[in-house]
Write a structure and sequence with these properties.
The chain is of the alpha+beta class and about 350 residues long. The protein has two domains: about 60 residues, Winged helix-like DNA-binding domain superfamily/Winged helix DNA-binding domain (Arc Repressor Mutant, subunit A, Orthogonal Bundle); about 190 residues, Type I PLP-dependent aspartate aminotransferase-like (Major domain) (Aspartate Aminotransferase, domain 2, 3-Layer(aba) Sandwich), CATH 3.40.640. The strands form four sheets. It has a four-stranded mixed sheet with strand order 6-7-8-9, with no helix packed on it. The chain has a three-stranded antiparallel sheet with strand order 1-3-2. A hairpin with a 3-residue loop joins strand 2 and strand 3. Helix 2 packs across helix 3 and helix 8 runs parallel beside helix 9. The longest helix has 15 residues. The relative contact order is 0.08.
Length: about 350
């Protein structure tokens, strides 16, 4: 069993070891019953500490890919690739940091100036839209490996110092073959995607790709952040289930907003996620703004109870609405939570 470690990589050595062995098992290069080298011998061969190999084996054991027997060593379990693969639960406590850092910005104030009548703002160097070289830019974009995504999310990620790895989007949504290669060589903290009416391309991830995306997330133990503000804006065609609806193992965090289906000034969003994760996120939300606009929440509660919720119950019954705070500074949940 030949393993190649990249000591200059940001990926920890135990993860590199686990990833390469996992790939060998899933590709059938390590058959059922194959005996893995003892941890001490493999550590000596790779020039790493034995605890590094032990941690890699523990990860594979947690995924159900290997098993240990006294006197027989560590053996590869039977695995059908893509079918019936054991899915290990995510450790949300380990994935979500307890500290929170806020970064102030003047961008919001500048944006407000642009919308005022009779004001020509010189605060930012923005040319007139009449002079935009749209056709030339469109041609250039079509020629490169384009991977567009929502500008607001990218801005937040970069402000927090998150290193982004982009995956191209084609007519059927995210290119999962490229994503699979990315996951094989590195382990991201999460996968961010807009599977329905992706911003800005407008593409929708097909049902087949949605299921494959979940399989990849389960296999590599990477959570998915599903940004879904537009799915209720469909005018025609088949309505596809959200990633959250297809997720059977609590890997998907679904985000959405009421600003697109009621009116833009109602700046209230929601998320559907495992209860353990919501309990970790609630203090972070309070650290940002204490609590969400109370009058807006009261209006939304009345509308969902007697208006929107009554008229479109068929579209909203499946939503798990998790409001971080309502009146005062308490947190509560709205809607059906599906047991999470």
């Amino acid at each position: 069993m030949n393993l190649n470690l990249d000591r200059a990589s940001l990926t920890p050595l135990h993860i590199q070891i686990a990833q390469q062995i996992r790939l060998m098992i899933l590709q059938g290069k390590l058959a059922e019953g194959s005996r893995l080298p003892p941890t001490r011998k493999l550590a000596e061969k790779l020039g790493v500490n034995r605890s590094t190999v032990v941690q890699a084996y523990n990860n594979l054991w947690a995924e159900g890919l290997i098993e240990s027997h006294v006197g027989r060593g560590t053996l590869v379990r039977r695995v059908e690739v893509g079918v019936g693969l054991p899915v290990a639960p995510l450790s949300w406590n380990a994935l979500v940091a307890t500290r929170w850092e806020t970064v102030e910005s003047s961008v919001q104030e500048l944006m407000r100036l642009f919308d005022q009548e009779n004001v020509i703002s010189l605060a930012a160097g923005l040319p007139s839209p009449a002079h935009y070289p749209l056709e030339e830019c469109r041609r250039i974009f079509q020629e490169v490996l384009e991977a567009p995504s929502y500008m607001g999310a990218i801005s937040v990620f970069r402000t927090l110092g998150i290193r982004l790895i982009s995956v191209p989007v084609n007519e059927a949504g995210m290119d999962l073959d490229i994503l699979e290669r990315v996951l094989a060589r590195t382990r991201p903290k999460f996968i961010y995607t807009l599977p329905t009416f992706q911003n800005p391309s407008g593409t929708t991830l097909s049902l087949e790709r949605r299921r494959k995306l979940l399989e990849l997330a389960y296999r590599h133990q990477v959570p998915i952040v599903e940004d879904d503000p537009y799915s209720l804006l469909r005018y025609d065609g088949e309505t596809l289930p959200s990633l959250k609806a297809l997720d059977a193992h609590g890997y998907v965090i679904r985000l959405s907003t009421f600003s697109k289906i009621l009116f833009p000034g109602l700046r209230i969003g929601w998320l559907a996620a495992p209860k353990r994760l919501i309990e970790r996120l609630a203090p972070l939300k309070r650290a940002m703004d204490l609590f969400t606009n109370t009058p807006a929440q009261v209006v939304l509660e009345e509308e969902t109870t007697n208006g929107f919720g009554k008229n479109r119950r068929d579209q909203t019954d499946s939503l798990a609405l998790a409001f971080f705070s309502t009146r005062g500074s308490s947190e509560r949940s709205r809607g059906k939570t599906g047991g999470e």
